[in-house]
């Protein structure tokens, strides 16, 4: 009798072909690809096609390419029409709102980023604000208007300066620094400036330095998008809003998977909240003249991982607790206790996003005396439990 044949279990792979049309020259583009690739490895096993491309290069699929779906940064009506003619599912990851791009869109929540930028500066005592913009670009205008509106909601004015871009969303290398310096000299110092991107931030840094203005003590600068290569190598290094490009790519892949499976596509935009502010030297200052208050705030920031108390802060500042609380209320409109907890919560958010530490470990590393106290306060401050926050703000297998 012949031996019984044993069949090895088959592995089902979804061998769909998916193209990714985003630039690879920026941190944003590379992270979008990383996020989409992560989702594919975990759920779809697609064959992914993408190429090295610059931010302003013409992004299109090769003639004769026979793919099943596309994730794209749809930046023009022409590109939208070309993709629509392919008659395959497309998911848009662009911040640009193109009228002819009738695709599901997953992109950064710009108003959320603008509010993060404002809070970053308010927490450092700034009350004078400005925005460095690029003329004629709707998505830059959206970001600018969101920041101006966030400042206005606090009763704070915001000066706006616009330059014509050289190409796409980049200022000309030969931009007239003297003109920028003239604008800077009209502002009340110290001033906090948000620039559309790192290249715009660089232009402000160079203009300020050419006129002898101190960065960050007199002119603090924040890039609207964090690009490590550019932001790290400007002198001084520039702080930036860390957009969650990996999550954008991951959610785009999840949406595309649903479309490829015949499920109804989403018609509303999905907005991804930025991860936070990547703080560097260009905003590492406190725009407060009260030296005791500066000592107190610096001590709190330096001890975000430790369970400090208001009395500890008062001792460092050289003030009584009552005097410290009065100065906090008059200058920052909050108490020292609220500031301590804010710094602890910010550190906890970061740890939940970038580590796989247990909740008790996160609590201890963020200055809380117990996991229970941490969980209660975290939910009160964010509206979510630590585990809910981690799940919504990461996609890796933590």
What does this protein look like?
- The protein has helices at residues 27-44, 77-85, 110-122, 138-153, 177-184, 198-210, 228-233, 245-260, 291-302, 310-317, 321-332, 336-354, 359-365, 371-382, 386-393, and strands spanning 17-21, 47-49, 69-72, 90-92, 106-108, 129-134, 158-163, 165-167, 170-171, 191-195, 219-223, 239-242, 270-272, 276-278.
- The relative contact order is 0.10.
- Helix 2 (77-85) links the parallel strand 3 and strand 4.
- It starts with 16 loop residues before the first strand and ends in a 5-residue tail after the last helix.
- The radius of gyration is 24 Å and the shape is globular.
- The strands form 4 sheets. The chain has a 6-stranded mixed β-sheet, with helices on both faces. The protein has a 4-stranded parallel β-sheet with strand order 2-1-3-4, covered by helices on one side.
- The protein has 15 helices and 14 strands.
- The protein has 3 domains: 17-106 and 245-271, 3-Layer(aba) Sandwich (Rossmann fold), CATH 3.40.50; 110-243 and 277-283, 3-Layer(aba) Sandwich (Rossmann fold), CATH 3.40.50.2300; 291-392, Homeodomain-like (Arc Repressor Mutant, subunit A).
- With 398 residues, the chain is an alpha/beta fold.
How would you describe this structure in keywords?
398 residues; alpha/beta; Rossmann fold; Arc Repressor Mutant, subunit A; 3 domains; 6-stranded mixed beta sheet; 4-stranded parallel beta sheet; globular; disordered N terminus
């Amino acid at each position: 009798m012949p031996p019984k044949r044993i069949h090895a279990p088959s592995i089902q792979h979804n061998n769909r072909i998916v193209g990714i049309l985003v630039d690879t020259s920026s941190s944003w583009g590379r992270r979008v690809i990383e996020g989409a690739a992560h989702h594919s490895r975990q759920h779809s096993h697609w064959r992914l096609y993408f190429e090295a491309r610059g931010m302003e290069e013409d992004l299109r699929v090769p003639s004769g390419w026979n793919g099943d779906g596309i994730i794209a940064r749809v930046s023009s009506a022409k590109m939208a029409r070309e993709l629509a003619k392919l008659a395959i599912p497309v998911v848009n990851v662009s911040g640009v709102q193109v009228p002819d791009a009738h695709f599901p869109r997953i992109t950064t929540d710009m108003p959320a980023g603008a509010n993060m930028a404002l809070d970053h500066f308010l927490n450092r005592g700034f009350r004078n604000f400005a925005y460095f913009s690029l003329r004629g670009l709707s998505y830059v205008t959206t970001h600018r208007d969101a920041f101006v509106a966030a400042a206005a909601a606090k009763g704070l004015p915001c000066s706006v300066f616009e330059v014509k871009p050289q190409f796409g969303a980049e200022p000309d290398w030969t931009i007239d620094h003297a003109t920028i310096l003239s604008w800077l000299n009209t502002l009340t110092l110290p001033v906090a400036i948000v620039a559309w991107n790192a290249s715009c931030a660089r232009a402000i840094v160079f203009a300020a330095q050419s006129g002898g203005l101190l960065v960050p003590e007199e002119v603090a600068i924040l890039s609207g998008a964090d690009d490590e290569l550019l932001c790290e190598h400007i002198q001084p290094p520039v702080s930036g809003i860390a957009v969650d490009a990996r999550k954008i790519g991951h959610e785009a892949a999840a949406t595309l998977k649903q479309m490829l499976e015949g499920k109804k596509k989403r018609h509303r935009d999905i907005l991804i909240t930025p991860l936070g502010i990547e703080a560097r030297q260009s905003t590492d200052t406190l725009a407060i003249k009260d030296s005791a208050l500066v000592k107190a705030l610096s001590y709190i920031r330096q001890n975000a991982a430790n369970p400090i108390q208001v009395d500890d802060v008062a001792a460092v500042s050289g003030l009584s607790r009552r005097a410290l609380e009065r100065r906090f209320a008059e200058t920052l409109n909050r108490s020292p206790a609220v500031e301590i907890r804010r710094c602890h919560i910010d550190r906890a958010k970061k740890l939940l996003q970038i580590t796989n530490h247990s909740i008790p470990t996160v609590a201890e590393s963020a200055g809380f005396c117990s996991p229970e106290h941490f969980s209660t306060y975290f939910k009160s401050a964010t509206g979510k439990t630590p585990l809910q926050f981690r799940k919504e703000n990461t996609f890796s297998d933590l």
